[in-house]
């Protein structure tokens, strides 16, 4: 193997490992049976069961300013309040699915929407070393829940 390539791959793997290990926002993993989702929806980042329509307010953020490559070119909703209750900390969610009559905000613009949260699980996992599966190091945020919102309606902004 080319020495420069080996150094590069080692550096990338080290950086990915450090990023994963130093992420204070990453919660400790606990197991929840998927069957339990049929009995009751899990509570999402908005503080209510997934699929529950709530009123959210906040300010739009330019994804290019967050420092995350995944946010580049996106408009994010920085949600500060859910049904009048302050979120601590606020959460950022991409402005994606929305009714046709909902205005897409620009960075710095305040919003007041009715939304529901949904999401999916995705990401890189490490196969057991005993399987000897060759795997190139990939920078990722590991296996995780990716949150989204659907914007149903817009309200007049309160001054």
| Side-by-side strand order of the widest sheet | 3-2-1-5-6-4
Q: What portion of residues is helical? A: 10-25%
Q: Average pLDDT, to the nearest integer?
A: 82
Largest sheet: 6 strands, mixed
| Rg, alpha carbons | 19 Å
Shape: globular
End-to-end C-alpha gap: 63 Å
Identify low-pLDDT runs.
4-24
Name the helix and strand elements from N-terminus to C-terminus, one letter apiece. HHEEEEEE
In DSSP terms, counting alpha (H) and pi (I) runs of 4 or more, how many helices?
A: 2
Strand content: 25-35%
Q: How many runs of DSSP E, i.e. beta strands? A: 6
Structural class from helices and strands? alpha+beta
**How would you classify the quaternary structure?**
single chain
Summarize the structure.
With about 160 residues, the protein is of the alpha+beta class. Helices cover about 15% and strands about 35% of the residues. It has 2 helices and 6 strands.
Explain this structure to me?
The chain has 159 residues and is an alpha+beta fold. The chain is built from two helices and six strands. The chain has a six-stranded mixed sheet with strand order 3-2-1-5-6-4, with no helix packed on it. A hairpin with a 2-residue loop joins strand 2 (75-82) and strand 3 (85-94). The longest helix has 19 residues, at 3-21. It is globular. The N and C termini lie far apart (63 Å). The model is unreliable at 4-24 (pLDDT under 50).
């Amino acid at each position: 193997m080319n020495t420069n390539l080996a150094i590069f791959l080692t550096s990338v793997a080290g950086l990915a490992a450090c990023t994963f290990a130093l992420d204070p926002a990453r919660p400790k993993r606990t197991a929840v049976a998927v069957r339990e989702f049929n009995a009751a929806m899990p509570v999402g980042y908005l503080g209510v069961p997934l699929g529950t329509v709530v009123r959210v307010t906040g300010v739009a953020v330019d994804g290019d300013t967050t420092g995350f490559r995944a946010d580049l070119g996106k408009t994010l909703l920085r949600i500060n309040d859910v049904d009048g209750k302050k979120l601590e900390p606020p959460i950022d969610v991409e402005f994606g699915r929305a009714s046709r009559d909902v205005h897409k905000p620009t960075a710095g613009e305040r919003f007041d929407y009715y939304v529901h949260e949904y999401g999916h699980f995705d990401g890189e996992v490490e196969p057991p070393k005993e399987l000897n599966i060759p795997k190139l190091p990939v920078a990722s945020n590991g296996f995780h829940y990716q949150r989204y919102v659907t914007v149903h309606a817009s309200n007049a902004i309160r001054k």
